[in-house]
Structures are given as structure tokens and as C-alpha cells.
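stuck on this chain:
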Amino acid sequence: MKRTSLIIFITAIITISLYYWGQRIHVYFFKPLTTALIILLAAQGAFKTRNKYGYLVTIGLVFCIMGDVFLMLPGKTFIKGLSSFLIAHLFFIAAFLTEGFYITWYILLILGLTGTIIFAIFFPSLNGLLWPVLFYLSAILFMAWQAIEQCVHIPAKNKTFAAIGSILFLTSDSFLAFNKFHTSLPLSHFLILATYYAAIYFLALSVHDPAFQKN
């Protein structure tokens, strides 16, 4: 696992660097390669634990790589990318729900306010994408909510990893949306990709916790 993690770190750094070196053609190789290595990391844990959680997270990551590819392609592929990531979040949600459903009102309130602020910022620029973006935002907020809830209620390292990954995913998507629908961010590629790769890496790590209960 350490060797795979090191390779993931190296390919992630290469991918981000290529955007700034102007080598876009090479990004088409290294960006999905990094995600594929993270899928491999998750799959190793899933087959080791033979747990529904691990399988669902791994499948979710497969849809992430599909989203990566769609968002890289020229033309009108944004909705296809958004849909792929939406399906990924639904698998992550299903994975979290295998461990139970929890409600803590202050967590729900904080995330609800966060989502409202995010949506209010982007609303004027959404146009025909209003409903797809709203549905996607709802899904990722629900995912982050249940990941945080389980981190609070279940004392296990993998729950902490899942919560960190979910929060970073929400952060990465917020950077991407801000850059696309509001104002171009300085170092946007670094902010979006660094948080994205960290997000899916922590989700993959959450499959590996030896304390994880089989079901």
C-alpha cells in the first residue's frame, strides 16, 4: 500500500505540473492514471476485507475516472462529467449507509447553510444548468453529511478517512464551480486537483482500516 501511495503522489504532482507546463496532451494520460491508481488502492482493500463498503467505494471511484475523462474532453461534455460524479456520490452514500444512518442537527444545519451559500453564489450564472447543479450539490452535501455523522458516532479510523475525503471532495467541487461559474481562481488547477486527489485518496484509504467490520 505504501508503494502504491507513493506512486499516486508522484503521478498527482506530475498531472498538476503538466497544466502549468502547457503539456495538455500529457494530462490526458496522467490525470486518469492517477485516479486509476487510487481505484487500485481501494480495490486492494475491498478484496482484502470482502466488505460491501469497500466494493461500493471502489465502484464509486470507477465513476470518478469516467467523470475525469468527460471533463477533460473538448466540447459539451460537462453534463456527462457531472452525471458520472453524481453516480459516484450515490455509490459513496450507499457505502456510508451500510454502517447506519445518523442525524445530528447542528451538523445538518452547518452543511445546509454551507450548501445554501454555495448555491447562492453560483445561481446567477447557472442558466440551463440550475437543476443539474442543484441535484449534484444536494448529493455531495448528503454524502459529506453522513460521512461526518459516522465519524462522530463510530470511533474507527476509516470513518475519519471517509469524512476527510468527503469534505475535501466538497471543497474541490466548490473550487471547480467557483472557477467555472463565478471568477477564475489563481492556481485553479492546483486547488481543484490537489483537493480532488486527496479526497478520493482518503476515500480509498477508508477501505483499508483493519478495524473495519465485515458485513
